[in-house]
Specification:
Blueprint lengths: L1 E6 L3 E7 L7 E6 L6 H15 L6 E6 L2 E2 L4 E5 L4 E5 H9 L3 E5 H12 L7 E7 L3 E7 L2 E3 L30 H4 L1 H4 L6 H18 L3 E5 L10 H11 L8 E4 L5 H13 L1
Parallel strand pairs: 1-4, 4-8, 9-12, 12-13
Antiparallel strand pairs: 1-2, 2-3, 5-6, 6-7, 9-10, 10-11
Helix pairs in contact: 1-2, 3-8, 6-7
The structure holds zinc ion (ZN).
Length: 266
């Protein structure tokens, strides 16, 4: 059985499948505060025992992190981990092929392969959850950046004198418009305006055909897709094409993407 994992800022999701995204078993739990990489390995082996699947044939992991070669988590502030060799840890524990990728790369891979970006020449994928990440899709392929770091949309600076961000800068988008920044707050116009400013600049820069949004923060009171599309027009270069805004229809784009990527490499 193939395993797919979504290691997010607040939750851990695990699913199994033989092929495609037709999941046989599914687990979802809140990620315990202070969860270590060793705890994560223990969780997976406990699920394999409980589900009776035997050892995984392959594992694909979607992680809220900047992921280097070989599944090394370089920066994972939303997990509280740094420089964790997750790919090697999982290979040692389960003796199977392991793929670890940044969550937005997984989500964008799903959208490019089987979702809203299938057939589109270009698309910008935005994952708005605890933090905010992005991935640019060109002709069906996901651009990871020159050193796999092109995914930190939440750290676009929208207010140079704004609130201090954990990355060391001030006024990053994620200090205003993320799930973490808006948790438990009533509807407010400012986060949508700041998100529109960042997206408007992205439209001016790359003029994508469509913008796909996913993530738990889209269910918070401040978010409004139609209003966002209107606001973006007022921040982007007028001659740039207006992109199509789409909310991801997939229940679990990160899990599906992690599975697709693990199929490519195993
Ligand atoms: Zn930042």
């Amino acid at each position: 059985m193939r395993y797919a994992v979504d290691l997010g800022g607040t939750h851990v999701r695990v699913a199994t499948a033989e092929n495609g995204c037709d999941f046989r078993h599914e687990h979802r739990s809140r990620r315990p505060a202070g969860m270590t990489p060793g705890d994560f390995v223990t969780l997976l082996s406990g699920l394999a025992d409980a589900w009776g699947t035997g050892m995984p044939r392959s594992i694909g992991v979607s992680a809220a992190a900047v992921v280097g070669e070989g599944g090394l988590l370089l920066a994972a502030e939303n997990l509280g981990w740094k420089d964790v060799p997750l790919g090697r840890l999982l290979k040692d524990a389960f003796a199977c092929p392991v793929t670890v990728e940044t969550d937005v790369v997984c989500g964008a891979t799903f959208e490019a392969t089987a979702g809203a970006a299938k057939g589109a020449g270009s698309a910008l994928y935005l994952g708005i959850g605890t933090g905010i990440g992005h991935a640019f899709i060109l002709n069906g392929r996901v651009w990871r950046g020159s050193r796999r770091g092109a995914n930190a949309f939440g750290h676009l600076v929208v207010e140079p004198d704004g609130e201090a961000c954990y990355c060391g800068h001030r006024g990053c988008l994620c200090t205003v418009a993320s799930g973490r920044a808006q948790a438990g707050k009533p509807a407010d116009a400012r986060p949508l305006e700041m998100l529109a400013l960042a997206v408007g600049n992205a439209v001016t820069l790359i003029e994508p055909e469509c913008i796909i949004l996913s993530g738990g923060a889209l269910n918070q009171p401040w978010f409004d897709l139609v209003a966002l599309a209107d606001l973006v027009s007022s921040f982007s270069y007028p001659a740039a094409r207006k992109p199509r805004f789409v909310r991801s229809k997939a229940a679990e784009p990160n899990l599906c993407g992690a599975l697709i990527l693990s199929l490519e490499t195993s």
